[in-house]
Amino acid sequence: MDRAQKEKVVEELGQIFESSGVVVVAHYEGMTVAQMQDLRAKMREAGGSVRVAKNKLAKIALEGKPCASIADFLTGMTVLTYSEDPVAAAKVIQKYAKDNEKLVILGGAMGDTALDPAGVKAVSEMPSREELIASIVGCIGAPASNIAGAIGAPASNIASILSTIEEKAA
Fold first, then answer.
1. 26-53: burial string, b at 16+ Cβ within 10 Å, e else
2. Which strands make up the sheet holding 22-27, listed edge to edge?
3. Is 60 exposed, middle or buried (0-12, 13-18, 19+ CB in 10 A)?
4. Are 32 and 100 a contacting pair, CB within 8 Å?
5. In three state form, how does the secondary structure of the chain look?
6. pTM for this prediction
7. How far is residue 15 CA from its own chain's centroid?
8. Residues 6 or more apart from 17 whose CB is under 8 A from it?
9. Using CA atoms, how far apart are residues 81 and 63, in angstroms rounded to an integer?
10. pLDDT tens-digit profile of 35-79?
11. What would the pLDDT profile of 112-154 be if each residue is shown by its tens digit?
12. d(C-alpha 30, C-alpha 128), whole Å
């Protein structure tokens, strides 16, 4: 890898570290190519990404970024998982690490907040952005449907009373 390629990788990593809601670092020593492809596919489905990069280049890219605290985790064979959604990458890698003992979560960062393995687990248990939006919409929509039901109920009751009276008169 020549100097220009290294500079390009550092720039790409810098953009990742700046724009991601969460970045999780893990050791992947001993994982097969098929397992790594499976992790990448699952991460892609959740809206995240997986990146393997040289630790030295990643440390250079971290300088001055909000998640610079993860530089201490960059030793050995590390993989970076990240997503814009502050929960997606943590959920996927936590679930994958539970099923695959060769993937060991070292920690991560959520903005400028450093996360240890327990912190990554806590973040993974939080509801995702889509789940939060759905629950907020449900809360907002519930009163409106209750009002519509209350307004519509008397009219249907009156209609049924009128039809009963009409049947008795006939």
1. bbbeebeeebeeebbebbeebebbbbeb
2. 48-51, 78-83, 22-27, 104-110, 113-115
3. middle
4. no
5. CCHHHHHHHHHHHHHHHHHCCEEEEEECCCCCHHHHHHHHHHHHHCCEEEECCCHHHHHHHHCCCCCHHHHHHCCCCEEEEEECCCCHHHHHHHHHHHHCCCCEEEEEEECCEEECHHHHHHHHCCCCHHHHHHHHHHHHHHHHHHHHHHHHHHHHHHHHHHHHHHHHHC
6. 0.72
7. 18
8. 23, 61, 62, 65, 66, 67
9. 18
10. 999 999 999 998 899 999 899 999 999 988 888 889 889 999 999
11. 888 899 988 988 888 777 777 777 777 776 666 666 665 666 6
12. 30
Joined together, the tokens standing for residue 20 give: 């991601």
Query: What is the radius of gyration, based on Cα positions, of the chain?
Result: 26
> Which whole-number Å values give the CA distances from 131 to 41, 137, 138, in the listed order?
21, 10, 10
Tokens read off for 83: 């997503």
Q: Residue 43: left (phi > 0), alpha (psi -120 to 50), or beta?
A: alpha
pLDDT at 27 > cutoff 80:
yes
Statement: 3-126 belongs to CATH 3.90.226.10: no
